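Budget justification aside, the reviewers requested a transparent look at the raw inputs and outputs of the sequence design task funded under Objective 1. We therefore reproduce one unedited record. The lines immediately below are the structure tokens for a 152-residue chain.
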């Protein structure tokens, strides 16, 4: 059986625009939860995660039946390395701004491409984050909403 890597979920409604910001700088002003000891301004930092507003949690609870629901903003900057997520095996993402890039999953050699997808903005999708992956060819920061089961 083929390993599931990516699924588009158009049946999940779009998030009302009033519940989120499209401004990366506004999200950056919310404390970073992903290795917060490293400054956001560092050229080495290519990823950050920030709490979403309470209204977003409330909206998500109506549309996602998950235990310990985590709802966050995430920012991906150009130059993200190939990686596996350390704190989750999967997530649902909703791109607010795509950065005009593609999401790519790799074999364990981190060279052979398993799948490459240009994910549409403002459409929910599920991704397998336990497979090596990255976002490549983005020209600007990618801003998204990410939802997953928080095991911390």
């Amino acid at each position: 059986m083929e390993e599931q890597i990516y699924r588009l979920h158009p049946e999940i409604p779009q998030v009302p625009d009033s519940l989120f910001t499209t401004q990366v700088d506004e999200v950056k002003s919310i404390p970073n939860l992903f290795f917060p000891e490293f400054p956001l301004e560092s050229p080495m930092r290519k990823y950050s995660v920030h709490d979403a507003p309470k209204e977003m949690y409330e909206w998500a609870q109506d549309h996602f039946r998950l235990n310990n629901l985590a709802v966050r903003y995430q920012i991906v900057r150009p130059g993200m390395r190939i990686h596996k997520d350390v704190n989750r095996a999967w997530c649902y993402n909703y791109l607010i701004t795509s950065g005009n890039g593609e999401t790519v999953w790799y074999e364990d050699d981190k060279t052979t491409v398993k799948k490459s997808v240009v994910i549409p903005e403002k459409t929910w999708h599920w991704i397998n984050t336990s497979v090596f992956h990255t976002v490549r060819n983005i020209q600007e920061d990618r801003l998204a909403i990410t939802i997953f089961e928080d095991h911390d």
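Residues 6-149 form a domain with the Jelly Rolls fold (CATH 2.60.120.10). The radius of gyration is 15 Å. Computational costs for records of this kind are itemized in the attached budget.
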